[in-house]
Structure prediction request, 216 residues.
Amino acid sequence: MNIILFGPPGAGKGTQAAKIVKNFDLYKVSTGSLLREEIENKTDLGNKIKSMMDQGSLIPDNIINDLIIKVLSNKKSYNRLIFDGYPRNLEQAKYLDSQIKKYKQKISCVLSLNVDKESVIKRILGRQTCANCGLIFNKYYHPASNKNHSCDLKFLSKRSDDNKITIMNRFETYLNKTLPIIDFYKEQNLLHQINGMVKIDRIFDEICGIIASLET
Prediction:
């Protein structure tokens, strides 16, 4: 199965995607990770991407789409993908739709985590990422402790863009750019709306129920 996971910044997409990957043996597709991988591998495309990022430019759709094609053409992850953070606009959604069909795959479901602006702000301002193991915590909702985190607390840090003004801008961008995609998938009867403001395990239980219904 292939799954698309939506939600505003701070909705908990990364946390839920990690749990889905682990429990259903899927491959996570994050455009941020794909871009960083190209840069780390120092490919020609990676050098081009790094130059754009250094200049503060947005990465154009054609480059993102090329990276997505590399994923779709990989037989190892055939029909076993979860897209986190892609597509980001309606054009990307339509492109993904065409390429999924080209590579004889399909989107099984689209999960949309719904969270209000006030909760998003608090979640992101409290977000901490471990630089050592990559786990994500929140000092308000899900603080790191010796029971859930084995790394030293010195590895916990906030992202530089996790400030209130940036968060509000990102939330508005999400509403303007991403919500039209929701209608696109709703018309295809693929959309499942999920309350993203309840506890993490409860959200995941609902996701598991949705996925189980697809497999029957």
